[in-house]
Design goal:
The structure holds 2 protein chains of 2 kinds.
Chain A lengths: L1 H13 L4 E8 L2 H11 L9 H6 L11 H4 L32 E10 L8 E16 L2 E14 L5 E11 L1
Antiparallel strand pairs in A: 1-3, 2-5, 3-4, 4-5
Chain B lengths: L5 E4 L17 E7 L3 H11 L9 H6 L9 H16 L4 E8 L10 E11 L2 E9 L5 E10 L3
Classes of the chains: A alpha+beta, B alpha+beta.
């Protein structure tokens, strides 16, 4: 286990500072409504486009964590490319974590503009730090990721997210 | 499978607050949520999260857990929900952060509470906590919300 964590530390550290651009695409009203429903926003601007318009929004309002809770925006990976526990082999895209499992430790979000249906969004993701620690059940990595969600056309910043992952 | 139940206690009982209404130390209401396996399944599906620990009970047991685990971002979503439901539709959430401290499983009763910690003009800071039925803190958090004047 220690060797694997050491390997992951070396590989992930090599990706620190590298910014990946990921196309999210046009935010779909139905997807926003479904996410909002599951977390308990059952009415108002999260479900009703007219209610959102009455409040001055340009589209149905996304629940606060919609953008930053979705783990993958592309089609894949195929099931054959997943680890036995279901996790992606590449949870941080191009940054190699050598097959370690990641668990979300929390997020720090700054909301610059409302996130609404119809926006065309691009995510810029960067691993900003990798730290090796000794946990109660053995060594682990703390991986800090900074994501910026911007409007694809003019690049205006919508949401920033700092997230920490524990990797074992 | 336990039935999902949730209710808002005291949230916006007297209408939504304006910045002038709010004082340090004010509670912002309470949200009680009991996520089920269906909740977790749908949240995983919507977030394209294939990790078996969130929907596969036998797999979760192999990692020593008594059930599938509530997702990190679902804990966060419940905390954020309390804030925006208290603040009302004309408010804007400006900043929100939380940490995952203690796991939760379907059937756990998660109680989300918050208190105003600072008022700076229209910006109101709140301290948040999600606790389980044993009183353990699953997820502490903080939020800054801009209230209407």
């Amino acid at each position: 286990m220690t060797a694997l964590v050491d390997e992951a530390y070396e590989k992930a550290s090599a990706g620190v500072g590298k910014v990946q651009e990921i196309r999210i695409g046009v935010l779909d009203e139905r997807a926003l409504q479904r996410f909002a429903l599951v977390v308990g926003h059952t009415d108002g601007p999260y479900q009703d486009p007219a209610a959102a318009a009455d409040l001055g929004y340009a589209g149905l309002l996304a629940a606060p964590l919609y953008l930053t809770a979705v783990l993958g925006w592309d089609t894949g990976p195929a099931e054959s490319d997943l680890l036995a526990d279901g996790n992606s082999r590449t949870p941080l895209g191009d940054v190699d974590v050598a097959g370690l499992r990641l668990m979300g430790g929390g997020q720090d979000l700054t909301f610059h503009e409302p996130v609404v249906a119809g926006l065309d969004v691009v995510m810029h993701a960067e691993v900003t730090a990798v730290t090796r620690k000794e946990g109660r059940s053995g060594p682990l990595l703390v991986i800090e990721v900074h994501r910026r969600y911007v409007e694809a056309g003019d690049g205006r910043l919508l949401v920033e997210c700092h997230e920490s992952f524990l990797a074992r | 499978m336990s039935e999902r139940s949730e209710r808002i206690i005291d949230a916006a009982a007297a209408g939504y607050p304006t910045a002038a209404d709010v004082n340090v130390g004010d509670p912002i209401g309470e949200l009680v949520v009991t996520p089920t396996e269906i909740t977790l399944f749908r949240f995983s599906a919507l977030t394209w999260n294939p990790h078996r620990i969130h929907y596969d009970h036998p797999y979760a047991a192999t990692e020593g857990y008594p059930g599938p685990l509530v997702q990190s971002h679902l804990h966060g979503s419940y905390l954020a929900r309390l804030v925006v439901e208290w603040a009302g539709p004309r408010a804007r959430l400006r900043r929100f952060r939380w940490q995952n401290r203690q796991y939760a499983i379907p059937g756990d009763e998660l109680r989300i509470t918050g208190t105003v910690t600072a008022v700076n003009g229209r910006l109101v800071d709140c301290e948040l906590a999600e606790t389980n039925q044993r009183g353990e803190t699953c997820a502490p958090g903080r939020a800054t919300v801009e209230l209407p004047s």
